[in-house]
Amino acid sequence: MADLFAGAAAADQAGPKQMAFEGFNLSRVDVGEATLRVRHGGSGPPLLLLHGYPETHMMWSRVADDLARDFTVIAPDLRGYGESTAPATTPDHETYSKRAMARDAVALMRHFGFDRFNLAGHDRGGRVAYRLALDHPDVLLKLSILDIIPTADVWKRTNKAFALAYWHWSFLAQAHPFPETVIGADPEYFLFRGSRGMFDPAAYADYVRCLANPAMVHAICEDYRAGASYDVAADEADRGKTRIKVPVQVLWGSKGALAAWYDVLAIWRDWADDVQGQAIESGHFIPEENPAETLKALRAFFL
User: What are the backbone dihedrals phi and psi of residue 244, each rounded to the nearest 5 degrees, phi first?
Assistant: First the structure.
């Protein structure tokens, strides 16, 4: 029930499929510590979309064109993911912390002329998103977080069910080069395990192509090493002291881990005053498995 790839059949509930990011511009943007591959398009209020593991910005391909009717949509690859550059690692893993990725996001939006913006983040992108809200409280308008609870709360609540279903959290956090070596033998199988049917073909092809680069595999591992160390410390430093100021929407998959394990809204209300949300009929990969409901929820919140 709580497997990362549960709910794949929900992808077939989506409306007609379309070309990915039709009419969007593709660019490379130097944000100071990294150079990000970015697609941007549309017009209206700014909306930054941040992807999750083990994907790229292409995970938004089934919703980006529709969102661009109402928003200026900006969708980057996180540092080290996709075709974005991978900064050098450090012993404390700060260069792959969500704090570092949040700095990238703020610099990226300033590059496009936006000092304040809306933000939706899925999975690891959701972790970057709430860290950005805590570290840069004056830049966000609204925040949508897809299928996560805060990192420190994940580790505090870890139990047998989590250890069996989300074992990759502990595995990817192991010291270099152990996980990189194992994944390198067959990145596609390790990271997707035959689940390609739930993804847009162009998006899936991008994921697999980028994962053939050992630098992305290493970046993923560093992301999770930071998640088990630096990110937890950052969360605990803010717990009970710093709260998210802006309205927060939380979406989670009805067939996934959050629905099975947590009172999602109650957890997020420990971190923010204005929290709303709902389950979406899907597994973990909400925008890809059920883009129609995802779009409806995002528009209702951001417009």
Answer: -75, 125
